[in-house]
Every structure is written in structure tokens, then in C-alpha cells.
Amino acid sequence: MEATSDGDRPWQSYHTVYTNAKAGMEGVDKEKVQKIIYELSKGSKYFENEKRKEAIIKQKIDNLRTHHAKLTEKEISHFQMIADNRILELEASRDLSKIWLHIDMDAFYAAVETLENPSLKGKPLAVGSMSMICTASYEARKYGVRAAMPGFIARKLCPDLIFVPTNFEKYTYYSELTRNVFSKYDPDFIATSLDEAYLNITDICSQRGIGCEEVAVELRNTIFQETRLTCSVGVAPNRMLAKVCSDINKPNGQFILPNDYNAVMTFISSLPIRKVGGIGKVTEQILRDVLGINTCADILHKGAVLYALFHQCSTDFFLSVGLGLGGTDTPQQKMRKSISNEKTFSATNDESIIFQKLADIAETLSKDMQKECLLGRTLTLKLKTASFEVRTRATSLQKFVNSKEDILIYASKLLRAELPISARLMGLRMSHFHDDKHSPLDPMQKTLTSFLTIGNVAPIADKSTGFDTSDIQLMYNTKSDISVDDESTFLSDVSSFSYESCDFLETNQLSVPDYVAVSYGNGAESLNECPKTQNKFESAEKISDVSNLFDRKRVAASSSQILEPYWVDDYICSACGIEVPASFTEERREHLDYHLADMLQKEECRSLLQSFPHKESARKKRKSSGNQGKYIPIDSFFVKEDKSL
Ligand code: DCP
Ligand code: MG
């Protein structure tokens, strides 16, 4: 991104979400797109933010390289032994008995819009607005136009681009039609967004005595008959691979990876790591620049160094990727943990307008809660400022409430503490429901588990896997700097992110506030989950595009390993509290990547600190002094860590 390193073509190293190719963008002139994006965004807040992030990542890469260079032969052989053993263990867990199908509708929102307005057929189309587009038709993608790109950039790339505003009612309607079909093939299908789902087709194949290929063709035909929309399908022995496969023959195609060890390993051997859910731009960059890892197969050759540089759970995940392992079991259903409503509007600092918006949001939230007979006692206010800073503030209420008036009293209090402000988005979320069986009736009473989990944490052993999560907890302990008061106040100053949501697990429900990060989770709507040791691939599995999707009780799940922070209630980052809607998949990927980089950095610091105990105690001292401020921007954590080095 820096002009100096690129001479007169600085855009060549300007890699943003927008320049990452999606299906349908194969023949795009990448440099031309990069140049336009670079020129249009240069000087913007987004650009500055990208630059800042890039500098942080570069610093991490340098630190990791230094650490790598210092590894002794003895250390390498020690870690090689660990890696070899772990590979054997992971290999022993391989399950080739299940057949998973991942289905992904093609250019979903754009296809729905075209269906309802056939004059759009064959035209370059973007769904969204000048500030952000949600998706683009395949015709538009040829110009480099893609989801999560600001509309004004898209128009520059494709001057004939037609813009259509979003209409979620329509998308939900068509999504329902597809789900009716899915349930005929797998009643426990896992919907991960409005347009994506995982189906375990093992039973249907054996019951009907047909192959998975036939099921895939039939399913796609049925979807088309029911909706007049096309989709793409991937079939593989696990969900991680099935998702990768569904993207191969997009649009309107399918790819079958047989349930065969050699087929899987051959497939994986040349698969670029970036194709795997959970490996986003930052992880890719770190693995490539520090260790020269480009393909999944490369990972297996670097097991020792990976264990030496990164935390065990990260390396377990990487090795699992290298082995082509992924979730194979159908997870249990989860209960709703929160309910929310938010509104985006033109940035304003007019307090009367802001309070009016707050009242509207409180009213909608109240109605939604009453519809579902929910009473809650933790209220979170989310604000996005004119400069795209996202703040969330939460408070614990004296009683369980669901009326507009009650919600507004507390919400106004939270808002007043933020004034003056120029806001462009506001949202309210209620959690800790009265009927939550893990929530104590007396709000002031902390459960034993929450005490154990929030305080100096005893290692939590996951009985189902025998995995000791103490290390993971330790990592989070370092993150506890983020959390401020008991009801938690978070903020990240990262203004654009990207996605990749998560795996969900069915796990022990610990009774802790849902803003307390207990683990690196691929869990989803609850933070109160312990990590499991299985593979974490489906961090690419998008959860839901609508906040109430959990109602459908088709929550994504995969018994996967915990690696990164995850999206609580489908939109709140468990690590920093920043909120990114599920539909902003790329932004989410980038955001979680950002934390992964943070985590990797911390691991590195931790291992260095182990050699310098006095520095560790200095760090503890800093921590115990507490954070009196309301929040700490995420970057400051990096700064601190760097200092501790
Ligand atoms: N979406 C969004 N914001 C994003 C990405 C997606 O709002 N950053 C919405 C619009 C998409 C829908 O989610 O239509 C599904 O997302 P996909 O990633 O599956 O993209 P598409 O279905 O549009 O295209 P395809 O799957 O053919 O690549
Ligand atoms: Mg799609």
C-alpha cells in the first residue's frame, strides 16, 4: 500500500476486500481494478484505516520472522515431535462416513431482483447503494464489481451498472422457499445465511440408493423449480471441504469430492489456503510471508515451526486444514440469546434526531420482544460515528423488561454518556432473557461458574474432547483489557472489517454474561461455550443474515475447533464487541483476521515473555491496574504488546 515501496504504481500492493476475487471475477483485470480502487479511496478514512492495519500486520510479520530465525535446532526437533504426534491424532479422527452438501445460491439478492424485474436480466446489476453494495450480478462481476464495495467505486468500474436497493423481505421469502426444499433432503439442515446451507445427505443417499451426484443434481433442479433461482453445490466428506467445493463451479454448477482419502489429499494438495473458511487475508499473509505457506499441503510440512510460533489451538487448526479435515456431525440446536434492532441513517449530530431514532429503535425492539414473550435485562447500545468508529455500550438493568418505555430509559442513559456525537448508525440489543435457564433469577447473583470463568480462571476441561482450555483462557485474559466495567463496554476503532463467521458448537452452557469472552469460539450465538478440539474450518460458514434467524432453530453448527473470536448473537465480535452484520461477510473475515493476527502476536509475546519473567510481571501489573477509561481502541493493544517486547 505504501507508495514508496511501489514506485509509481502504489495500487499494486493495495489489497483490500474489494480486490479479492469472488466467483465470476476470474477474467478481471486485477491491476486496473486495484488502480481505480486505490485512486478513489486514497485519502479516505477507509484508506487510512487500511494503511494502519497494514502497518500492524507488517510489524507482526517482522516479529514472527525474528522469532522464527531464533529457533534452535533443538527447539525445532522438539516441536517436530509434537507436530508429528498431533498429525497422527488428527488423522485418527478422520471420518469419511458422512456425505455433506453445501449449497449456495448464485448472486442471491441480485438474482431475486432480476426474477422480480426481468428487464434486469443479463445486465450488470448491483444490489445496494452508492455507499455499499451487497452483491453484484455475474455480468457486473466481470468489471470487478463485488459485494462489500462502495457503490461509487463500483460505478467507476462499470459505468453502466444498475443499482437496485435491498429488499430483505423478498430475500427472506425466497430463502424460505429454498429451506422448504432443503428440509426434504435433511430435516436438520444447517442454514448459515439466507442463501447458504449445509445438508447431511448421508441418509438420503442410502435410503434412496442413489449417489450424491444424483442428489446434488436433483436438489438443484428442485430449487430451480420452486424458486426459478439457480444455486451451486459442493459435496464432500465434511463441511469445510463441501463449502470449498460449492464455489468451484459457480454459478449454477456442482463439484463432488468423493469420500476417499486419496481424493481428499489430492484435492487439498494444491488448494490455496485462502480458499479455506477461517483463513482470510491476514492469516494468508502471515503464513505466506513468515513461513512460505501457500497451499494447504504446505501446512503439513511446517507443523514444527507452526507449533513453535503459534498457539496450539491455532496450529491444530492449521494442521487440520492441511489434512482436509472438517466438521462431520450435525450440531444440536441452540436457544436465542439476544434480540436486536438497528438503523442506519445519514450522519447527524442533531440530538433531537438521534434521540428520535433511539425511540424508534426501542419501539421496534420492544415489539419484537413482546412478540416472542421475551424479557431481558442486559441492554447494549451500538453507535457508529460519522467517522465509522463503532462503539458499543452495555448496561445491566434492575429488572427484566420489554416495554418501549423501560428500554428507552436505559438506552437514553447510555446514549447521553456518548454525547456529543455525530452518528450514522444506532442499534439496541437485549440479552440475558428471563427464561434463560442459565440466568439466575436475581440479577445480582453471580453463579459459581461465572465466578470461575470471569475471575482467575480455572482450566476448563472439555469433557467431550479432553481438551484443556486453560491456554485459550489465558489468551483471553490478555484480552480482558478490552472489557471495562462489569456490564462491559467495548470498542474497536477498526472501521471496516470483514468476516467470516463461525462454527457453532453444541456445548456446555456456562452461566457467564454473554459479553465475557470465555474462549476463542467457533460457537456462535453464545459466548458461553468451551472450546472443542475438533477442526475449526467452518469459520467460513456464514451464520444468518437476519438477526432472528435463530428462531428457525437451524443454527449453524459444527463441532470444530476454536481458533478465532466469533460472532456472538450473529453480529458481535466476541473479542472486542464490535458489531458487524452477518451480511458483511468479507468485512467480517477481515475483522476476525485482524484478531487472529492479534492472537498470534500475543502468542508470540507470551512465549517471549516466558523467557523474561520480569516482563510478564510488568504486564500483569499493567493489567491489574485496570482500565478506568470507557474503552480502549483495539490498536492500543498492539502498541502495548509491542512495548512489552
Ligand atoms: N451479502 C451482503 N454483503 C456481503 C456479502 C453478501 O449483503 N458482503 C448478501 C448479498 C448476497 C448474499 O448475501 O446476495 C449471499 O452472499 P454470497 O456471498 O453467497 O454472494 P452471492 O449469493 O450474491 O453470490 P455467489 O454466491 O454467487 O458468489
Ligand atoms: Mg450465494
Automatic annotation (TrEMBL):
Key words of the record: DNA damage, DNA repair, DNA replication, DNA-binding, DNA-directed DNA polymerase, Magnesium, Metal-binding, Mutator protein, Nucleotidyltransferase, Nucleus, Transferase, Zinc, Zinc-finger
Record bears the keyword Metal-binding: yes
One GO BP: error-prone translesion synthesis
Location within or outside the cell: Nucleus
InterPro entries per record: DNA/RNA_pol_sf (IPR043502), DNA_pol_Y-fam_lit_finger_sf (IPR036775), DNA_pol_Y-fam_little_finger (IPR017961), DNA_polymerase-Y (IPR050116), DNApol_IV (IPR022880), PolY_HhH_motif (IPR024728), Rev_trsase/Diguanyl_cyclase (IPR043128), UBZ3 (IPR041298)
Catalytic reactions on record: DNA(n) + a 2'-deoxyribonucleoside 5'-triphosphate = DNA(n+1) + diphosphate
Every UBZ3-type domain range: 566-603
Primary residence: nucleus
MF term (GO), any: damaged DNA binding
Keyword Hydrolase: no
GO cellular component: nucleus
Residue span(s) of domain UmuC: 100-280
Needed cofactors: Mg(2+)
Gene3D superfamilies: 1.10.150.810, 3.30.70.270, 3.40.1170.60, DNA polymerase, Y-family, little finger domain (3.30.1490.100)
EC numbers on record: 2.7.7.7
PROSITE patterns per record: UMUC (PS50173), ZF_UBZ3 (PS51907)
Family membership noted in the UniProt record: Belongs to the DNA polymerase type-Y family.
Name of the featured protein: DNA polymerase kappa
Source organism: Musa acuminata subsp. malaccensis
